[in-house]
Design brief:
The complex is a heterodimer.
Chain A lengths: L4 H13 L5 E5 L3 H4 L1 H7 L4 E3 L4 H13 L3 E7 H6 L2 H10 L5 E5 L17 H6 L5 E4 L3 H13 L4 E4 L21 E4 L4 E5 L4 H13 L4 E5 L2 E3 L3 H10 L2 E9 L4 H11 L6 E6 L9 H7 L4 H11 L3
Helix pairs in contact in A: 1-3, 1-8, 4-6, 9-13
Chain B lengths: L5 H25 L4 H6 L1 H11 L14 E4 L5 H11 L39 H14 L6 E6 L6 H12 L5 E7 L8 H4 L5 H7 L3 E6 L3 H13 L4 E6 L22 H16 L1
Parallel strand pairs in B: 1-2, 2-3, 3-5, 4-5
Helix pairs in contact in B: 1-3, 1-4, 1-10, 3-4, 3-9, 5-6
Bound molecules: thiamine diphosphate and magnesium ion.
Chain lengths: ~300, ~280
């Protein structure tokens, strides 16, 4: 079985954190879930478990950043946007302190625990904070890059991870750059912009669309902020329709960010928003939730065809 | 102070033994859910729903009802078993736990599940909501009580202590916080993850009467709750429990906080629990 994204994350922290003494890792009693425990085992002296006290953890992370450290602040995504928000806003955003918020269990990936543990607003929340950069991990190789990039780039950052493995989108030759989306499939009729777990269903949808005579281009928009405006407007110019797909509320996340660019860039191209339609989901397996809440490849196909008037 | 008969105690012991069996069967079947904290809170929930609290399953929103909040929401499976036994919904419905379209969500949901007073899951928030409910009852001159069943790891959250300060400030005596004091949280023992030191002294310093009891002993727990209810000032119950109680390999182990139960472990657990129920 392929490695989970959180295992890749924990292992990459160890890879760089063993020798780079600026790196400190914090968790709030969920280190076995976030896999920061892998770092805790390897580098116990630079790991801090604050117990079930996320606001305190975020504040301590801020202080560590002020002291020249690079704090990786870990818990479930939903608790970073809620309990971690005041420190993110005050120290990370306002003061540009070098805090790295890493949200485990992004989107619906903690399906069984239900809406109290889903994270469907994290991209929207962190995107509104000045100075914050926002990323969504779309596969294993990219996750490793995200960790390295977080170390190399000074400034507050939110990285959304997911619970399980994701099918590989990239091979070893892939390159990633902050502020640049990656075209993972070329096409002429429609552009599907996705992130995280939704990139694979977007690619599958493009495959199906091809059999129906629709040429779909797929973009992995793993960097939600700063957003690749140029690429979005190029896509809008080239194709007749833009479809955004995210494991997130359709309000304020990837779809919202893309719409802002299309509107201000005068693209004049319609957009279809796929995501949670201003609703919480419920308890269930991830697949059952994707089916019920319209996030499967089939849903992308159907909504794309509808958007194209077919 | 109210009392409980030996006969009723024996019945509740029997009921708890059965609830543990029902719990483990279902968590094994669905391969998800939290066994450890469900097993440790069994007697507390059974006693509240089936004996002490005034609740009316036919009329879950009765204004005079006592409000029970399970703030450690991950023990939802045991909560649902207690609610089913109290008659809020058919026991068969427990088989839908954690499945799509079920009323029994992974964590308590006040919208969908009869008898659930407030959603929970995010730790540390529930006691504040309980304080608000207790204040509302006072404003309405409603004699009902509020019970907040909390985890000891949950006490790491600063908001819990903010709530405690408000309880003291407003002299809230119609709310009984009950701590499921099992000494274990998710990543390890509470003493390792975030030492709470002398918990009783902390609560005392915050203005509470502190009542210690054995959280698995029906008689002792009953006495503690009725004492707290009749104090007429802020009080808290520290109910000493064992996380994973009743399944020897789960007892005291953080690894069984939320781990799926495989077939081999299920067989061992059932043998122990059924032996216990018959013996
Ligand atoms: C705010 C918040 N942070 C983290 C979690 C994840 N979590 C769920 S249960 C738990 C441990 C709970 O320990 P404790 O309160 O002692 O409960 P018990 O031992 O009774 O299971 C954690 C960290 C959560 N649900 N909410
Ligand atoms: Mg505990």
């Amino acid at each position: 079985m392929a490695k989970t994204i959180r295992d890749i994350y924990g292992e990459t922290l160890v890879k760089y954190g063993t020798t780079d003494e600026r790196i400190v890792v914090l968790d709030a009693d969920v280190s076995n879930s976030t896999k920061s425990a892998i770092f805790a085992k390897a580098v116990p002296e630079r790991f801090f478990n604050l117990g079930i006290a996320e606001a305190n953890m975020a504040g301590i992370g801020a202080g560590l950043a002020a002291g020249g450290k690079i704090p990786f602040i870990n818990t479930f995504a939903v608790f970073l946007t809620s309990l971690g928000l005041l420190a993110a806003r005050t120290y990370g955003s306002y003061s540009n302190w070098n805090m790295k918020y890493v949200g485990a269990y992004g989107g619906l990936s903690n399906g069984f625990d239900g809406p109290t543990h889903h994270s469907i607003e994290d991209l929207a929340v962190f995107r509104t904070l000045p100075n914050f950069q926002v990323f969504v991990a779309s596969d294993a190789r990219q996750t490793a890059w995200l960790v390295k990039n977080a170390i190399d780039h000074h400034g507050p950052m939110y990285i959304r991870l997911t619970r399980n493995a994701i099918p590989d989108i990239y091979d070893d030759n892939a390159t990633f750059k902050t502020g640049k989306g990656n075209i993972v499939r070329q096409g002429d009729d429609v552009t599907i912009i996705a992130c995280g777990l939704m990139v694979k269903p977007a690619l599958d949808a493009a495959e199906t669309l091809a059999t129906q005579g629709v040429s779909a281009q797929v973009v992995d928009m793993f960097c939600i902020k700063p957003l690749d405006k140029e690429l979005i407007l190029d896509c809008a110019k080239k194709t007749k329709l833009v479809v955004t797909v995210e494991e997130h509320s359709i309000i304020g996340g990837l779809g919202g960010a893309v719409a802002e660019v299309m509107a201000t860039g005068g693209s004049g191209v319609p957009q279809v928003f796929i995501g949670l339609n201003d609703t919480h989901a419920e308890t269930g397996t991830l697949n059952a939730l994707f089916e019920k809440y319209g996030l499967t490849a089939d849903d992308i196909v159907a909504k794309t065809l509808k958007g194209l008037g077919k | 102070m109210s009392t409980i008969s030996q006969k009723r105690i024996d019945e509740l012991v029997e009921i708890c033994a059965q609830m543990r069996i029902d719990l483990i069967k279902q968590l094994h079947k669905i391969q998800t859910g939290h066994p450890g904290g469900s097993l440790s809170v069994c007697e507390i929930l059974a006693l509240l729903y089936l004996e002490i609290a005034k609740v009316d399953p036919k009329n879950p929103k009765l204004p005079e009802r006592d409000r029970i909040l399970l703030t450690k929401g991950h023990a939802a499976p045991m909560l649902y078993l207690a609610l089913a036994r109290a008659g809020f919904f058919p026991q068969e419905e427990f088989s839908t736990l954690r499945q799509i379209n079920s009323r029994l969500q992974g964590h308590p949901d006040a919208k969908t599940t009869p008898g659930v007073e407030a959603p929970s899951g995010p730790m540390g928030l529930g006691l504040s909501a309980a304080v608000g409910m207790a204040l509302a009852l006072k404003l309405d001159k409603n004699p009902a009580r509020v019970y907040a069943v909390m985890g000891d790891g949950e006490l790491n959250e600063g908001t819990v202590w903010e709530a405690c300060m408000s309880i003291a400030k407003f002299g809230i005596d119609n709310l009984t916080p009950i701590v499921d004091f099992n000494g274990v949280q998710l990543d390890g023992l509470t003493n390792e993850i975030m030492p709470m030191l002398d918990l009783g002294a902390k609560f005392s310093a915050f203005g509470f009467e502190v009542i210690n009891c054995d959280g698995h002993n029906i008689a002792d727990l009953y006495k503690a709750i009725s004492t707290a209810n009749s104090f007429g000032k802020p009080s808290v119950i520290l109910a000493k429990t064992i996380k994973g109680k009743g399944v020897s390999f789960m007892e005291g182990k953080n690894a069984w906080h939320g781990a799926p139960i495989d077939d081999a472990n299920f067989a061992i657990a059932m043998k122990e629990l059924e032996g216990n129920a018959n013996g």
